[in-house]
Amino acid sequence: MAMLFFCSDCGYETSKWTGKCPSCGSWGTLKESTRVTGKTSKGGSADRNAPKPERIKDIKYSEILRLPTKVKEFDLVIGGGIVSGMVVLIGGEPGIGKSTLMLQLSQWMGEQGKKVLYVSGEESQEQLHLRSVRLNVASENIWLLCTNDAEAALDAVEENPPDILVVDSIQSISIPSLDSLPGSITQLRESCNRLLRCAKTLRVPIFLVGHVTKEGFVAGPKIIEHMVDTVLYFEGELRGQYKILRAVKNRFGSTNEIGIFEMTNAGLEQVPDPNHIFLSDSGRANGSAIGCVMEGSRAFIVEVQALATSSNYGTPQRVVVGLEQKKLALLLAILEKNLALYLRSSDVFINLAGGIKSLDPSLDLAILAAVISSLKDKPLPEKSVFIGEVGLSGEIRPVSQTDARINAAVKLGYERIYVPAQSKLRQRAKVQKLQDVKELYAVLAQE
Length: 447
Known about the structure:
It contains ten helices and 23 strands. It is of the alpha/beta class and 447 residues long. It has three domains: 1-37; 66-272, 3-Layer(aba) Sandwich (Rossmann fold), CATH 3.40.50; 276-446, Ribosomal Protein S5, domain 2. A nine-stranded mixed beta sheet has the order 8-7-9-10-6-11-12-13-14. A hairpin with a 2-residue loop joins strand 15 (288-295) and strand 16 (298-310). The radius of gyration is 26 Å and the shape is globular.
């Protein structure tokens, strides 16, 4: 074994320690690790059985077959179903529902006659049995193996290959032959590598549960996320009722889809109509505007809440929940420049209702409308939706898939849909076009 230093953020390797990573520039991220070296071939001759390059057009392949879980929200996030040999990493804060989802996934697949091997390195058989009783997980096709030995888990898979393998969690298992603690960079990298090799060789789908750091990223080197095929993250408040499953990497599907689940006493249940959870029943409230975001192929109507109040301190606060902090500062500067609204002595708070997080630029218009409503202490037009991106000079710019957003708003009964003037639309009913923020302010002042 050779000693080296490994960057936990970007995966850069070096033989010497430095305070700053030469690749990504992060400070204090180089961790000491060991490199597992194998035997070199005698005489340096190449292996006769080694693969040789082929022309890409001559490669024969079969169509990817997907195994659906029959849970619409989960299948949508994962790309339509489980693919043979895929490796999925699921991350999220402690207690958000990762293990619950994996146990329910085992039940969904067990009901279809698929054999599932659930490897747990964190809980005992008694603990998992109690949880399975609470979640009504009673399929005869689910097999449980409680061990921290990765080699023992791999031996069990090779002796009797299952249809699906679940490892909970990747940080809890280790390879005994490596002289390092479970959860270390060496153990994580080598354990993940062997599981990946097993998945591709035996064509067994593997689901890995991963711990996260205080910043919300999967613990361990970033290279783990590069090795797997799909990375899913659980979002939402720990004590909240609704959870959002988001794909941030997917080699077999879109990375923009999200799945909405509700946490109940019987486990996670999919939400058939997610739009209502992002809206409140407050009616025409001051500082409340309705926008529309696109997540993959679906449009979600969301409520943007704004509160602008006089600051009691020298420096006003700018607080956002569910949005990017710099986005608020940019939009407030646009308001001051184009509408001469004095915001330098006001605290401004922005919140997306329902716990959703979004970087969709189409929310710019809804944020400005909510801020203006709060400043003027006047509600916005009833049953109105604001869709559009705002430029630095105050112009309202078109956004993608405007027709899909309008259709989602019309289905929910909204009668006034404000969109950019330059939008090319198929549907023009109930649509009002706006040129810039000055025109937006004039429309809101007339109501």
